[in-house]
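INPUT
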Amino acid sequence: QSVLTQPPSVSGAPGQRVTISCTGSSSNIGTGRDVHWYQHLPGTAPKLLIYANTNRPSGVPDRFSGSNSGTSASLAITGLQAEDEADYFCQSYDLNLGVIFGGGTKVTVL
Amino acid sequence: QVQLQESGPRLVKPSQTLSLTCTVSGGSIGTDGYYWSWIRLLPGQGLEWIGYIYYSGSTSYNPALKSRVVIATDTSKRQFSLNLRSVTVADTAIYYCARSRNYDSERDHWGQGTLVTVSS
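OUTPUT
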């Protein structure tokens, strides 16, 4: 059971917009701790997608965007493409548990 | 460009110690002020942070694993290691090493990961 809750899966047609939620609590995201997002394809290293809630590393398309409010954060993918089919994980920090991750969300492009 | 690579046995017997090494190229682990982490991907579950070591040698571990984990560095070899003792089948996972600038910040560089299976 992951400390951060993500939906197991989301799907969308090419070109559509999908969002992935990451729900925490008052001991992690709710304290103002940053949320980071990773994209993961099987057999590869997780790739940093969003850091510090809203920032994209160099090379990450602006189709990916992050936001947060209260005890939750969200990752949005606009103009969904076939290459976006992957697992996505959120990460934050908890006062009692240390570094924490979400359970992951599988994005399927229909 | 910093690169990380995990190495170690892929099969460990129950009750034994899982030992992995992460070799860092393109940077120093003893002077650059980074945190070096071990993280694992459990089958059918999410990522789980195991612990980290700071370049100064201080460590922090996941409370759920703390009693079984030791992370250490060998700066001369540009390596840091993971020892997880008394393993069970529940420790079967893909193990990753990763780097971050702060203890709570993003992991900006990751190794490719290595699958470790616990089985008799």
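end of record. The mean pLDDT of chain A is 95.
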